[in-house]
Amino acid sequence: EVQLVESGGGLVQAGGSLRVSCAASGFAVDDYAIGWFRQAPGKEREGIACITSSDGYTDYADSVKGRFTVSSDNAKNTVYLQMNSLKPEDTGIYYCAAGCSTVTADMLGYWGQGTQVTVSS
User: Fold this and answer.
1) What is the DSSP string of 67-111?
2) Contact 62, 39 (CB under 8 A)
3) Residue 90: left (phi > 0), alpha (psi -120 to 50), or beta?
4) Closest CA to 30 of 50, 51, 48
5) How far is CA 47 from CA 10, 44, 75, 101, 120, in A?
6) Tell me: the pLDDT tens digits for 14-54?
7) Torsion angle of C-alpha atoms 36, 73, 110, 22, degrees rounded to 10
8) pLDDT tens, 44-54?
9) How far, in Å, CA of 95 to CA of 34, rounded?
10) Strand partners, 71
11) Largest CA distance in the chain
């Protein structure tokens, strides 16, 4: 069974850091590009970071570039999102999925259940 499980969310003050994890089972994280997405209250889900573990390619949305870092540990079959210099507007539910865009991720259908990140001002 294919499964993605996020963990590591929580409450943090503005300027702080948090690392969220995405543990995969049923497939290898280097078989697919793995994307991180977030959904803020009242907004659509947006892609914010992506990694292809097979070649180390990463990509970021402008809103998180320079503050967030996506990485993978193939031995643990886990992808991470290190978030630094957090802002209140980073608040939302963070999801990982196979694919770098919501269109691709929806087509593949491998989404995690999400983890809440709340940044207080």
Assistant:
1) TEEEEEETTTTEEEEEE-S--GGG-EEEEEEEBSSHHHHHHHT-B
2) no
3) alpha
4) 51
5) 20, 10, 25, 6, 22
6) 999 999 999 999 999 988 999 999 999 999 999 999 999 88
7) -60
8) 999 999 999 88
9) 10
10) 80
11) 40
